[in-house]
Write a structure and sequence with these properties.
Elements: H1 3-7, H2 10-23, E1 35-39, E2 55-59, E3 65-75, E4 79-85, E5 89-91, E6 94-97, E7 107-110, H3 113-122, E8 128-138, E9 144-154, E10 162-164, E11 169-171, E12 177-180, E13 192-200, H4 207-213, E14 218-223, E15 227-229, E16 240-250, E17 256-259, E18 263-267, E19 272-275, E20 278-283, H5 289-300, E21 307-311
Parallel strand pairs: 11-18, 20-21
Antiparallel strand pairs: 1-2, 2-6, 3-4, 3-5, 3-8, 4-7, 8-9, 10-12, 12-15, 13-14, 13-16, 16-17, 16-18, 19-20
């Protein structure tokens, strides 16, 4: 029977129309085509739990859905190490991007406490090769609506190396310059800042215990360069031993990327050596002799005593 003749018969026309509805539903037959899931790759050499929810969702349906997400992290050589389930949330037709707020509260299930402790301590997963997967499920039926997986490698950063003051050196400048090497490799899409912390050590303290237990003598959380002249308005150094370190911080997330070893230096004030009829002063390098004498003369007490000025490099005791 030709299609033109068949359409003249109402009963046959109804059958054809119903057949079309069966063959061409409102959404694709395969559930994975209902919601297209796209994971945004994390920053270079970084991986946090929040990265599981950096997702773009494209709903191919004409009607909204209530969905939830399951995110998994697998480590090469170890298998599944984390499964995370989001809260239920609605998704409308078209493209939407998760911000992390929609998925809260999130239920985390770590396979072992080793990885949980590492993530809680540093904010990042340890070095390794990972597979991240994100799957969307319909709340009402529990059926899978869409899924995406990506491979991501986390390699350890080379932490900042302290350059100056040199460890165990005696510093005499009132405003020494602190320098260190940059983080390496530098993430191409990251905004890295540095945090420097200095504490004064008490007698018999180790540098590590001083950094953990003592209040900061000086701290700057947002140093953009790898050099910091000690600010003139900061708390003046007192004679004693000091411990310090530098952390590289991701400005976007606030996560610590790497921390330097602990440096130690001794600070002493300018030396005044008094002999009968003579005062020898060790002065900062570069101060003009006449300015130095003008500054020192009121401190000498006896204006008849000659001042012998010796200019030295302050890093040398």
């Amino acid at each position: 029977m030709h299609l033109k003749n068949a359409m003249k018969n109402p009963a046959i026309s109804l059958i054809i129309i119903l057949s079309g509805l069966i063959l061409y539903p409102a959404y694709p037959v395969h559930s994975q085509d209902i919601v297209v899931v796209r994971i945004t790759p994390p920053a270079m050499n970084q991986l946090s739990v929040a990265d599981l929810w950096q997702i773009e969702l494209t709903s191919m349906s004409r009607v909204p859905y209530d969905i939830y997400m399951i995110g998994t992290v697998e480590l090469e050589g170890s298998g599944l190490i984390l499964e995370a389930r989001s809260a239920n949330f609605p998704i409308s037709p078209g493209v939407s991007r998760l911000t992390g707020r929609e998925v809260q509260p999130v239920r985390l299930s770590y396979v072992t406490s080793r990885y949980r402790d590492a993530v809680m301590r540093t904010g990042n997963f340890p070095a390794g090769n990972y597979t991240l997967c994100a799957t969307a499920f319909e709340v009402q039926s529990g059926r899978e609506l869409g899924r995406d997986c990506i491979f991501h490698s986390v390699q350890p950063f080379s932490p900042p190396q302290l350059i100056a003051p040199v460890t165990d050196v005696t510093v005499r400048q009132p405003y020494p310059v602190f320098t260190w090497t940059p983080l390496a490799p530098m993430p191409p899409d990251a905004f890295v800042r540095y945090r420097i912390k200095i504490v004064k050590m008490h007698r018999a303290q180790t540098p590590e215990s001083a950094l953990q237990m003592n209040l900061s003598w000086f701290e700057s959380p947002s140093v953009m360069l790898t050099t910091l002249p000690y600010p003139a308005k900061a708390r003046a150094f007192e004679e004693g031993n000091y411990a310090w370190f530098v952390e590289a911080i991701d400005s976007r997330t606030g996560n610590m990327l790497a921390r330097s070893d602990v440096g130690v230096f001794q600070w002493k004030p300018l030396l005044f050596i008094s002999d009968p009829g003579l005062i020898v002063a060790i002065t900062p390098h570069g101060i003009p002799a006449d300015l130095f004498e003008a500054l020192m003369r009121p401190c000498l007490g006896n204006p008849e005593i000659p001042v012998q000025k010796e200019t030295i490099e302050l890093m040398i005791e």
